[in-house]
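Q: Start with the shorter request: fold the first protein.
A: Done. Sequence, then structure:
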Amino acid sequence: MLDPVTAELVELALREDLAGYGDITSMWTVDAEAEARAWIVAREDAVVSGLALAAAVMNRVDAEAEFESLEAEGAELTAGGVLAEISGRARSLLMAERTMLNFLRHLCGVATQARRFARAVQGTEALVVDTRKTSPGLRVWEKKAVRDGGCGNHRFGLFDMVLIKDNHATAGGGIGATVRRAKALAPFSMKVEAEVQDEVGLREAIAAGADIVMLDNMSVEEMTRCVGIARELERRVLLEASGRIDLKSVGAVARTGVDLISASALTTGAPPVDLGLDFVGKHEEGPCC
């Protein structure tokens, strides 16, 4: 049973491609009774994510088609590896092909990007996490792909955590005032985070009781200094680095001693993985286990 958001996402994606008319090329060239078997194949090295969404697309096009995942989510594949095998009516497979691959290429791309970031901070205590900079309608799946790649999730939306940014502080009377107000209203189990740009903001946020302090757009040198100050003031406060962090800089940022590194590049900077759907012979053997 699909959750309502995913069901709507699949429906919208197929409607965009079929527009109520269907796949006219397949209808005019392939017999309605023709059966086919196909593999989803990686054309380059990749980390797997999104197979359940691809299966949902296939099921929506043709509930009688069989979709078998051949790799676990988070598995690493080399070029030529097979992610899934699909069998059923040839027209159905052709109709679902591009929508399945569009979702899979992107989600495998996010997972592959996350694996790169996770490896870049190995040997440190820092965890790279995502942001809310996600594709509309795909947040659940992109955040899952981030986890499949070995990184972590930040808040899901505006409803599950307090994150006081510069505009909140400006509109609400400053960092200290907004943190204190949020702490007074939030349930005890909800974290309150404040974004700061300098030492003054850091001291103000910690004094007001922030659970997490985001060190935003600081140089590595300034961040290292602020981490030291924060550890002296309140060792329990979590420290998050943020601001234009990429694969080239994330290792140095991790070595400053921060606990978390939020990077929008996990989702917005993830190149799609090259995947293809290849029809195979009826008796052709599948990939070796």
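Q: Next, the second protein, separately.
A: Sequence, then structure:
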Amino acid sequence: MISSPPDFALRPARPDDAEAVLELIGPELHFGLDDIRNEWRSVDLERDTWAWEHGGRLAAFGILRSRGEELSVNGFVHPDFRGRGLGTAILQATEARARERDAWKLDNGILATDHAAAALLEASGYRDARHYFVMTIELEEPPPAPEWPAGLEPRPFEREHARAFHAADDEAFQDESGYESEPFEEFVERRLESPRFDPKLWTAVWDGDEIAAALIADWKRFGAGWIAGLAVRRPWRRRGLGRALLLRSFGQFYERDERRVSLSVHTENPSGATRLYERVGMRVEREEVLYQKELDAG
């Protein structure tokens, strides 16, 4: 049984709550209604979301998301209702549900500037695990044309190569701290069955019959063209593929009149991705912190 602070009614979120949830989310995250609805598409709203109401207003919202075996939380409290125990209620509800799902750890992401949330998480047994930059470029003019290494061929994504694409993307991220593989079936559901999926914005770089590198991009996510993944397999690194893929993607967005392109990157990415993004003109827009709690530790 999940308890709620006095004067607040607790229920699961409903699809028609999306607009009210958007009002809880700070403008610095650039969320839109489509971002919320797309996320909810793969979430069990009845069991994995929580909405606290006060006088007919949505005061707070929490959601438990899954990616493979990894569970993570997002929680938001309206400024009018902060300091009344709702943040703690979100943690209690999501942790209880994560334990029901036999999770051994739980992730919770916040903005680096949200010191109140950081204090609450640390007091509740979470530790600062990883930091990420959201980086953005404003395209004031067409980007330079990409230059591809000899013998390598960029092609749009083709469904028949979905498993090879997924395997190449997964392999390239194995070096990153905290990375957890996503099962192919979940990759298909989350990516290929998403209303946002546009194969023209995805690129596979082929070396003969092998995929050397891959880029995943989404149209209009978080207020921008969004590069959801850039992966270069180890044997093909240091050959300019990352830069070429970025410039190709920038050009595609520019042709669609999208002037703002963003991505998220681990601040300690072992392949030096942050420096690459800076060299192509991207700048840090905000920093996010991933907190983590081992649930077996209490």
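Q: Describe the second briefly.
A: The chain has two domains: 9-103, 136-289. The first strand starts at residue 9 and ends at 11.
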